[in-house]
Specification:
The chain has four helices and no strands. It has 66 residues and is mainly α.
């Protein structure tokens, strides 16, 4: 445990970078979920991005990545 603490003290820039990447990934995940939820909230009417770009037959995981 002491080695790990010394590692974190020595490489504070790397730990900050890892933290920043984690925050960016978390925000990207939240945005993707909200983007899909907004289309689902409108019952996938023709004005939503899923229907407009013909993604209605795709699986939810593929839509998440799109």
């Amino acid at each position: 445990m002491e080695k790990f603490q010394n590692f974190l003290k020595m490489y504070q820039g790397i730990t900050r970078l890892i933290g920043a990447v984690f925050i960016v990934l978390l925000l990207a995940h939240f945005t993707a979920c909200m983007w899909y939820f907004s289309a689902k909230l409108d019952n996938f009417n023709p004005d939503t991005w899923i229907m407009r770009y013909k993604y209605m037959d795709e699986e939810e995981g593929d839509i998440y990545l799109i």
